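Team,

Forwarding the record for the chain on the shared tracking sheet. I've put the sequence and predicted structure together so nobody has to dig through attachments.
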Amino acid sequence: MRICFCLAYVGLAAGLVSAQIDEAAKANALYSRGKRVDALPLYEDLAKTHPKDMQYAERLADCLGAKAAQVTDPVRAKALRTRELDAAKRAIALGDKAPFLQLMATIDPNSSGAIAPKSPGGSLIQEGEKAFTAGDFPTALAKYSAAAEADPKLYEAPLYAGDTAYALKDLNAAAKWFARAIAIDPNRATAYLYWGDAIMRYGNDPAAAKEKFIDAVVAEP
């Protein structure tokens, strides 16, 4: 009887582990395709089950930010940004050194985090954000590119275009867009950080990435 119980327990434990592996695989597949909002409930569960896993905390923060960008109700959006901030800080505390997390850890939950549509460029940025959070990177890139042409002084347009090219794993295009953002405002750190992160992940050039991170610190000490 005891043997049967043990076998049943082992079978149940194996089933739970298998379910968690399947959940992680599904979450990672969605995330890799840019479906961050769809992946959010999975990463919420994974981060809760594995509270010391920095990657789950990192991706939870990123997915919460994507969800906040889609929410129009200010109370819900603030709640999501607050959770995004907490998850980003937790990932950093666990040892995650991703540059974009450093930015997330400084967000103001009371800020909308969006570009107001005060100009054609602003409206196109918002359209691009909707496409980006839905994982439609080609459409997002087209919108951000159009925003950059409509408003050549709008820093976020080439910044987000570069980030989208980075998501598409086109490092050359990303570099051109980040350089364009830096030309608009060389005293903002964001484009340097995004550029350095892109080089780290796809450029295989740690020295060049380090140079961009140093530029970011010089821009905003």
